[in-house]
From TrEMBL, chains A, B, C:
The keyword Nucleotide-binding does not apply. Belongs to the UPF0126 family. It is a multi-pass membrane protein. This is Trimeric intracellular cation channel family protein.
Amino acid sequence: MMHILVLVLDLGGTFVFAISGAMVAVKYRLDAFGVLVLSFAAGNAGGITRDLLIGAIPPAAIEDWRYVVVSALAGTITFLWYPVTRRYSRDVLWLDAVGLAFFAVAGAEKALVHGIHPMMAALLGMLTGIGGGMLRDVLVSGIPTVLRTDLYALAALAGAGVVVGGHLLQVAPTMAAVAGGCVCLALRFMAIRRGWHLPSARSGHGAAPDNHDDGNGR
Amino acid sequence: MMHILVLVLDLGGTFVFAISGAMVAVKYRLDAFGVLVLSFAAGNAGGITRDLLIGAIPPAAIEDWRYVVVSALAGTITFLWYPVTRRYSRDVLWLDAVGLAFFAVAGAEKALVHGIHPMMAALLGMLTGIGGGMLRDVLVSGIPTVLRTDLYALAALAGAGVVVGGHLLQVAPTMAAVAGGCVCLALRFMAIRRGWHLPSARSGHGAAPDNHDDGNGR
Amino acid sequence: MMHILVLVLDLGGTFVFAISGAMVAVKYRLDAFGVLVLSFAAGNAGGITRDLLIGAIPPAAIEDWRYVVVSALAGTITFLWYPVTRRYSRDVLWLDAVGLAFFAVAGAEKALVHGIHPMMAALLGMLTGIGGGMLRDVLVSGIPTVLRTDLYALAALAGAGVVVGGHLLQVAPTMAAVAGGCVCLALRFMAIRRGWHLPSARSGHGAAPDNHDDGNGR
């Protein structure tokens, strides 16, 4: 049961994040194959890293061919209809929030199943959510937008935290997953709509602007 | 037998890729030690990642000291005779294609031996081939050229795919390895000579050029 | 006993490197949460990579919640009092050398305990020392300063090498650790004070300067 829950959330998140990877790849003029590679990286790096860290080896995305197929499908769709996909990039932003919620919840759930300490399980849920986006951005040599985008990592952590909290309070996993997903989505939605964000430090000196930040995924 | 085959191909590929890593390191003015580190990274990141993902832990490049020695040798040669190495950089390009073929074949073979699903074994062969070049470029903060260079990743996948096909058809591993290597080489050679390449998407907007792409390895 | 030695050195190194990660994050204007993420990455990437490579899975930094707490503490302090921290950045440089010594020694020790070949154990000690700084710099898209900073990686390797040498000569681990730490510190101190550094290759062509190098940690 929990296994199916994790699988469905994982594949859903993979699809959405693979689209975001493909869009960045097209923007940076990678060829058709590079687009597929970046789709896979963005869609699966978070889950693969989580699986390596909790000792679920080989990782699900390597053992189960469906992850590749889903990633390739998302990459192909984006590649073939990029101008169309682009026009809906605002909607992709919402989709991305849904993917983030899926991954955060699935990541925390799987870590708990593997007997990881609750606090670390919540952090692994967050990592599952932001890992793919981080690799995507590092590969095109930008600072990961997930480290700067409003409440992005925090929303993932909050969602994962709810799952872990539910586990500690012995709530049914499906309910905790739904609640965690909603918290993550709600935070991202408020951040996108209302511009909620966290403070930066008073850095006490001039800016160190990063010319590579291209706001992908924002 | 298969173990020796993988070892020879792996060490050969490591040597060639370590040279490519060292050349990039020299170009970016890393010091002698940084050159050795980048040699090791470029020569072994693909194989190490493959081993982590298939559960062959510790990875061969950590368990077996020969990988480090081969990498250090390649790095030292490149460092000491950089102007010479540079003059032959066209030949290094061909060597690099040979290394790619070695790695793609060895990677697929090893994944099969570890009982990975055939489709994933082919992809792991590709990853073994392109992983080192990707880390090399990310460390000097460029977009990985392997994601843009003509047919690079695709040639690796094709070679690995032949190995996997041979496995499914129960061809002798050595023969499948030779055939796979030849396919990979042939594709890269045509790409270099004739400029074969895959299409990019119509991105529907201006370029997002990347100033860091320095065409290393091309 | 050796376990406690590794733990203390690891946590100490984590704290210091987490500060360096947080300082870079603040400089690049990440928000409060991004600062914490980069603190954790800089403080733990080296140890996590080492643990994955030697098969100590889940890695200590995932299994033991103290690593996260120490990283978060360092990140929070840096974030809240950045102008103050910044004023003492020269002292942070010395602290960083101490962290490097801690990590190099702990990394080599742990690899030996896991039965890794001595030469590879020394290299894994080095990797433990420089891994966090490398990820930190890659995430803000610079060339890792650890690959260019004077004798940085070499000092780590020397310290780790002393630990391994002590192991081979059956010296008491604590003594070998102290000696190794001193060697690493001494090399870094001389490099900082006297400008000791390794030669670069005669690259035989114009510079390929990297605009992102911001000398963090120097």
